[in-house]
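TICKET: design request
STATUS: open
ATTACHED STRUCTURE:
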């Protein structure tokens, strides 16, 4: 049996931009050995569309070589959580556990992780924190759990909380420019820069909305000027448009 020690359902986003300082802080919190209640377990929380999953994904790929095992579970409900632990058992070659009932299997995988010496477990979209009661592995200096959630009650998970805030103006413009394939030279393209600043401001600096706008610029409008025309002319239609190409 081939053992898969890197089980992540998403490829790295080559166009990820911003959040560098945040990612550095996240790494320090996960690796910090100072005595704290929830050492090595961090919950990224914030509103929907803020970029929690993409930030967690970037952390995974940027720090891939720091762990012997990396596993990713989509934890939107108890069924998906238990299914995720079953997938870990399969990927890790823990065939003896596969005959157990879902809750027993999950508990056995949690215990197994606690005995391993180097891993990162990502629990993505864990909004109902009650489903992880008794199903979080014991953490340590090289045993890290990273959680994404819209629930600001990180202590209820329990984990150390880190709020993922809106992007700043500069990072928002950089994201729009990068994903729309429209390069902006600040000194030479003042009009283009003002249009980009207006777009990200009107979109509330929300990464998911900026990604959608960039895709619309890239595939439909072709320029920031035309995007603003379309957006102001039929905002609902622009919001409902779905890209047929690359989605960031």
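STATUS: resolved
RESOLUTION: sequence designed for all positions
ATTACHED SEQUENCE:
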């Amino acid at each position: 049996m081939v053992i898969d020690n890197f089980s992540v359902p998403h490829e790295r986003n080559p166009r990820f931009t911003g959040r560098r300082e945040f990612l550095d802080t996240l790494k320090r919190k996960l690796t910090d050995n100072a005595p704290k209640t929830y050492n090595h377990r961090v919950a990224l929380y914030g509103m929907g569309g803020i970029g929690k999953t993409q930030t967690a994904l970037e952390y995974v790929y940027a720090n891939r070589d720091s762990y012997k095992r990396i596993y990713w579970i989509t934890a939107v409900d108890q069924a998906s959580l238990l299914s995720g632990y079953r997938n870990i058992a399969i990927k890790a070659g823990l065939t003896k556990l596969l005959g157990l009932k879902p809750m027993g299997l999950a508990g056995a995988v949690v215990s197994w992780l606690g005995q391993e010496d180097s891993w990162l477990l990502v629990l993505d979209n864990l909004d109902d924190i009650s489903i992880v009661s008794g199903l979080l592995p014991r953490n340590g200096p090289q045993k890290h759990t990273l959680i994404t959630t819209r629930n600001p009650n990180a202590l209820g998970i329990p984990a150390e909380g880190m709020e993922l805030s809106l992007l700043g103006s500069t990072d928002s413009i950089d994201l729009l420019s990068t994903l729309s394939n429209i390069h902006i030279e600040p000194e030479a393209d003042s009009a283009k820069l003002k249009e980009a600043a207006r777009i990200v401001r009107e979109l509330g600096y929300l990464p998911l909305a900026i990604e959608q706008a960039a895709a619309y610029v890239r595939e439909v409008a072709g320029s920031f000027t035309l995007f603003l025309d379309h957006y102001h002319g039929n905002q609902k239609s622009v919001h409902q448009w779905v890209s047929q190409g690359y989605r960031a």
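CLOSING REMARK: The beta strands are 6-7, 41-45, 69-74, 119-124, 143-149, 160-163. The chain has two domains: 6-163, 169-240.
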